[in-house]
């Protein structure tokens, strides 16, 4: 392995660790939110807004930060972004009101832009045929949510509830310093190439409809993944009566498997094609969501001599299995979407990647709120999965129409080329 390869893998490793640290802060409310729901007596809708607060800021700021990542050092941006998370974390123990947690959640949400910065940083280190793998490994930093699921209960049991913010703040300072000291800077060739393009160059792809179509796909594969991280601990406690420890352990299984498989998904996208991997992932999720959408149901069949009672219910173990499969499919889907983006826009990973990442993060922001609305209105816990089923159906219809249009265009180009050959 030559020096350039070593630097590339060092950059990928440190970027992934930094992203994991930021992601753990971004999803912090998924655990402390359960305690706050009880303490503040929140409804499902209010709980959804609480979970969405940090995700909202992380979503909307991914767009401007994506453009900054095209013009400035991503290494420096990553460092300062991590340090910005420290003051709100230290202030977290002082908050006592629902509105206070909402506002501090907005500030903590700035950690969510780390994905956009990291994607732009990593892509400059690897050649095209390795991009799926590299982006998949970096995306495995989603496992930072697992850090929160493990670390928060430990902090609470060992030091007390009020120490969570301080512990996370110290951790972010350590990670920022580690990244600053050891993460290599992108070489001069890439910096010069980046600086030679103006804003119009980076904005140009945004007029393409397919950019927004990629965003819709990411809304499901990442947005629903993020929403489920936030919602599952509460769901296990409310729907199945599990303890908080059991709920976090089962959510940890979902988060870890879905995050780590993303690297494998990147390799599959490199090898078998990103679109094929994405389409397959959608179908797997569709089947699982069909069963998860059914609430506990009892039917009475009026027979000739007696009534026959038929019951259907997804028990906690079948539910966990289906969620596990969905998480694996989403991991493949997240990797394949970004491989598709690189295939179409290799020189716009900051701008296009930022837009797609923002749309995906908006899924993590809007879906918990919609989950709360759905549960409050319909009155069954599985209403959230009915909603996800509808979102996925829309994604699959759009993707099917797009693939069909691409096939028709290819047939037309082939027909025109054959006509030219025959005339010659």
Automatic annotation (TrEMBL):
Keywords of the record: Membrane, Nitrate assimilation, Transmembrane, Transmembrane helix
Topology within the bilayer: Multi-pass membrane protein
Stretches of the chain forming a coiled coil according to its record: none
Short name of one Pfam family: MFS_1
Location in or out of the cell: Membrane
InterPro entries: MFS (IPR011701), MFS_dom (IPR020846), MFS_trans_sf (IPR036259), NO3_transporter (IPR044772)
Positions of transmembrane segments: 9-32, 47-65, 77-95, 101-121, 133-154, 166-183, 216-236, 248-269, 276-294, 314-332, 352-374, 380-403
Main location as per UniProt: membrane
Domain Major facilitator superfamily (MFS) profile: start-end pairs: 10-408
Family, similarity comment: Belongs to the major facilitator superfamily. Nitrate/nitrite porter (TC 2.A.1.8) family.
Protein name according to UniProt: NarK/NasA family nitrate transporter
């Amino acid at each position: 392995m030559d020096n350039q390869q070593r630097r590339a893998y060092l950059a990928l490793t440190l970027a992934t660790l930094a992203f994991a640290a930021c992601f753990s802060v971004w999803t912090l409310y998924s655990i402390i939110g359960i305690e706050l729901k009880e303490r503040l007596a929140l409804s499902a809708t209010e709980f959804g807004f609480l979970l969405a607060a940090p995700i909202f800021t992380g979503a909307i700021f991914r767009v401007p930060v994506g453009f900054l990542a095209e013009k400035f050092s991503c290494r420096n941006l990553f460092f300062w972004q991590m340090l910005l998370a420290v003051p709100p974390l230290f202030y977290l123990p002082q908050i006592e009101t629902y509105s206070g947690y909402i506002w501090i959640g907005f500030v903590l949400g700035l950690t969510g832009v780390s994905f956009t910065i990291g994607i732009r940083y990593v892509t400059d280190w690897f050649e095209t045929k390795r991009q799926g793998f590299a982006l998949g490994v970096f995306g495995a930093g989603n496992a930072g949510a697992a850090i929160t699921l493990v670390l928060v209960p430990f902090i609470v049991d060992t030091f007390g509830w009020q120490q969570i913010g301080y512990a996370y703040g110290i951790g972010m300072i350590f990670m920022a310093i580690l990244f600053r000291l050891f993460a290599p800077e992108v070489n001069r060739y890439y910096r010069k190439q980046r600086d030679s393009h103006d804003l119009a160059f980076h904005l140009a792809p945004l007029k393409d409809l397919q950019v927004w179509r990629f965003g819709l796909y990411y809304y499901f594969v990442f947005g629903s993944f993020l929403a489920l991280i936030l919602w599952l601990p509460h769901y296990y406690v409310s729907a199945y009566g599990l303890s908080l420890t059991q709920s976090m352990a089962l959510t940890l299984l979902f988060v870890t498997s879905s995050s780590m498989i993303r690297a494998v998904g990147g390799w599959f996208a490199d090898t078998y094609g990103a679109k094929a991997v994405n389409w397959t992932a959608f179908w797997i999720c569709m089947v699982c969501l069909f069963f998860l959408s059914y609430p506990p149901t009892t039917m009475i069949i009026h027979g000739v001599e007696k009534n026959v009672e038929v019951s259907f219910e997804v028990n906690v173990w079948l539910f966990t299995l289906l969620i596990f499969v969905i998480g694996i499919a989403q991991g493949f889907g997240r990797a394949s979407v970004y491989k598709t983006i690189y295939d179409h826009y290799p020189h716009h990973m900051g701008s296009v990647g930022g837009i797609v990442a923002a749309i995906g993060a908006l899924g993590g922001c809007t879906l918990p709120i919609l989950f709360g609305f759905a549960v409050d209105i319909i009155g069954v816990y599985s209403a959230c999965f009915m909603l996800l089923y509808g979102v996925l159906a829309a994604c699959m219809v759009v993707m099917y129409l797009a693939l069909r249009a691409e096939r028709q265009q290819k047939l037309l180009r082939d027909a025109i080329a054959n006509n030219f050959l025959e005339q010659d």
